[in-house]
């Protein structure tokens, strides 16, 4: 799992530019599925055929937060807008990289009061001496991702883009382990979640599943003076009750709890007060789809140093496999 997580998190793929990570995932899952296609929004949709049960959509978004160049000034500095939720306080001093291999560091104009540090005060320095030199490397509209090699701290894994590459790893491992299933499993590695749950919405519309389950990270309440939240790193898979995008289908949520209890899978219940997941889009597709979420507890979300516990990731794999192999009667 460490090797897979390292490959996935170090791959490039801000929202709208998921090509490199999509091709990496395609190579990982190709031997384990019956059909693979890429839709108009760039979603990687993988079908593992069953024997006549339900159509089950399992979703993990493959995009990550990032930056987009909006202007190159006369001295070669890049102004940028954000792709997804990028905190300026976390951004300052970080390194970023573009798909073509250009690197840069985020700097700031002089700010006397830290409260005045906003994205419009920041810029990317790619080492160019002037606009002409910078324009030869980077264009307006180019995207950049944060650059941060993955590291392992015992059972804790730290990297950029664990939101949501940790879930991509869970979905890949599920396809590898699930074996025969009665259900048609549609594994969707979705695009553009960070900018509005866009990929999952169109994927669900096309698939018309009987059940939709998103796999995503969630915040924790276990760090000093953190938000009050009953989710901790190392306590198992989190079964979502609600977030800002949906109230999970109660019968499906209860069924997920039942499966975890029957299989001896460690789990915790999650109520996320701010933030959403692709299940919010899946649930509202067409006439409505029963939807739930399996969450991976994660510290420091939307930073270049997100942290998960490898044991929690494993419990999420076990729960996802168990649901695929169960009758899904709820």
Question: What do these coordinates show?
Answer:
The protein is of the alpha+beta class and 330 residues long. The protein has two domains: 2-64 and 160-325, Zn peptidases (Aminopeptidase, 3-Layer(aba) Sandwich); 66-146, Elongation Factor Tu (Ef-tu), domain 3 (Beta Barrel). The chain is built from nine helices and 17 strands. The strands form three sheets. The protein has an eight-stranded mixed beta sheet with strand order 1-2-12-3-13-16-14-15, sandwiched between helices. Strand 4 (66-72) and strand 5 (77-83) form a beta hairpin. Helix 5 (162-177) crosses helix 9. The chain is globular, with a radius of gyration of 20 Å. The chain starts with a helix and ends in a 5-residue tail after the last helix. The mean pLDDT is 96.
Please give the largest β-sheet: 8 strands, mixed
Give the strand line-up of the largest sheet: 1-2-12-3-13-16-14-15
SS elements, strand count: 17
- Beta content: 25-35%
CATH superfamily of the largest domain: Zn peptidases
Separate helix tally: 9
Element string (H = helix, E = strand): HHEEEEEHEEEHEEEHEHEEHEHEEH
Overall average pLDDT: 96
CATH topology of the largest domain: Aminopeptidase
Shape: globular
Contiguous low-pLDDT stretches (5 residues minimum) are: none
Helicity, as a percent range: 25-40%
- The class by helix and strand makeup works out as alpha+beta
Indicate the radius of gyration in whole angstroms: 20 Å
Overall structural domain count: 2
Distance between the termini: 31 Å
The CATH architecture of the largest domain can be given as 3-Layer(aba) Sandwich
């Amino acid at each position: 799992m460490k090797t897979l997580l390292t490959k996935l998190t170090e791959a490039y793929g801000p929202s709208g530019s998921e090509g490199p990570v999509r091709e990496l995932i395609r190579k990982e899952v190709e031997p384990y599925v019956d059909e693979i296609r890429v839709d108009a929004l760039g979603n990687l949709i993988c079908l593992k055929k069953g024997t006549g049960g339900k159509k089950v959509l399992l979703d993990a978004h493959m995009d990550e937060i990032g930056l987009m160049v909006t202007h190159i000034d006369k001295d070669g500095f890049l102004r940028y807008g954000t792709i997804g939720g990028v905190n300026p306080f976390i951004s300052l001093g970080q390194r970023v990289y573009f798909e073509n291999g250009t690197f840069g560091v985020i700097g700031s104009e002089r700010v006397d009061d830290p409260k005045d540090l906003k994205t419009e005060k920041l810029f990317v320095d790619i080492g160019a001496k002037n606009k002409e030199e910078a324009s030869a490397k980077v264009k307006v509209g180019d995207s950049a991702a944060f650059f941060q090699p993955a590291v392992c701290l015992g059972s804790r894994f730290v990297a950029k883009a664990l939101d949501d590459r940790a879930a991509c790893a869970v979905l890949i491992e599920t396809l590898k382990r699930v074996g025969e299933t009665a259900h048609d499993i549609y594994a969707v590695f979705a695009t553009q979640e960070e900018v509005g749950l866009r990929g999952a919405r169109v994927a669900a519309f096309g698939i018309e599943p009987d059940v939709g389950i998103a796999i995503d990270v969630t915040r924790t309440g276990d760090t000093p003076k953190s938000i009050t939240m009953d989710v901790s790193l190392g306590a198992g898979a989190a079964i979502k009750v609600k977030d800002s995008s949906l109230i999970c289908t109660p019968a499906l949520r209860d069924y997920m709890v039942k499966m975890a209890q029957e299989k001896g899978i460690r789990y915790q219940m999650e109520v996320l007060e701010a933030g959403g997941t692709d299940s919010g889009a899946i649930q509202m597709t067409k006439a409505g789809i029963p939807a739930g979420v399996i969450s991976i507890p994660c510290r420091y979300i939307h930073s270049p140093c997100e942290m998960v516990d490898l044991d929690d990731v494993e419990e999420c794999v076990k729960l996802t496999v168990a649901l695929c192999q169960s009758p899904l009667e709820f």
